[in-house]
Amino acid sequence: MTRIRRTLAALALALTLLAAGGCGKEGSPPVKGPSPEALPAYQVATGFRLPASPTWRKAKRRGYLVVGVKEDQPYLGEKDPATGRYSGFDIEIAKMMAASLGFDPKTIRFKTIASANRETALQNGQIDYYVGTYTINPLRKRLVGFAGPYFMAGQSLLVRKDENDIHGPQDLAGKTVCSVAGSTPLMRLQADYPKARAVAYDTYSVCVDNLISLQVDAVTTDNTILLGYAAKAPNELKVVGKPFSKEPYGIGVPKKDTALRFALDDAIRARERNGDWRRAYNATLGRSGVPAPRPPRVDRYPAR
Ligand code: GLU
């Protein structure tokens, strides 16, 4: 097939999926998008001050927070193209953090930042903090700070529903596997499974389009992200095998802003204690089928 024909075929399939989602195709479960009514409202801290944080001071002067997120990850960080509104578990985490920092969550300006650009966005002050399936690891900790973790994910594999050869990462030799530039799953794929043919794009949704249009054999990233895509297209896609890594999600902050990092650590703990974390999970990520786990322990590491 020529490139154009392949693209057209992918487009047709995407439209079919869209139509199926819209009117509930017979025999398929209804698409369970996060319903905004069920979302918790977060109490905004009054009189909260954090003068030791340059990021917080700048946001106060500006009057609102700028938060980096993803826009194409169902149940996590998703932007509605019609309304421009963002929804998902990471969006809820961003909102509850804003409320704890004394900002009305409704005033947040969300900014979509791809995996490969997160560190520079934080270093350049383009965003105040980042909430978007952002794995805490030593390499990244050299460049940015991390509050949390607030969730534990694990690398997994997404394949087409009719795929019979791939059951786990051991089956990837000779297969074309798609992931995202600047992500930990891509690095692990290249380092630990060198016999797989790795392909990298800027976003996971492009990988999924490529999977549906038969241009790649699998997509690899966190189970959370993949379960979201599978839940949206249960007749076309499935997640296989057990997670084969630990991906602790943190909130990225500018590296030197320890005051902000500690305030967010406190806020995560408080929101886990008062039930907001669980309510947010149930209204978002929980809808892709996995019941609320126990959140991991916050790692309040010292300033460095
Ligand atoms: N959690 C992984 C990472 O931070 C994969 C998801 C993503 O690219 O955001 O790289």
TrEMBL record:
Q: Name one GO cellular component term.
A: membrane
Transmembrane parts of this sequence: none
Q: Which GO terms describe its biological process?
A: amino acid transport
The record ties this protein, via SUPFAM superfamilies, to: Periplasmic binding protein-like II
Kindly give the PROSITE patterns that the UniProt entry links to this protein. PROKAR_LIPOPROTEIN, SBP_BACTERIAL_3
Q: Which residue ranges does the record assign to the Solute-binding protein family 3/N-terminal domain?
A: 64-288
GO: which molecular function terms? ligand-gated monoatomic ion channel activity
Domain Ionotropic glutamate receptor C-terminal: start-end pairs? 63-279
Entries under Pfam families matching the protein: SBP_bac_3
Keyword annotations of the record: Signal, Transport
Checking Gene3D superfamilies in the record gives: Periplasmic binding protein-like II
Q: Which residues form the signal peptide?
A: 1-19
Q: Where is this region: Disordered?
A: 285-304
Family to which this protein belongs: Belongs to the bacterial solute-binding protein 3 family.
Q: What is this protein called?
A: Putative glutamate ABC transporter substrate-binding protein
Species this chain originates from: Streptomyces sparsogenes DSM 40356
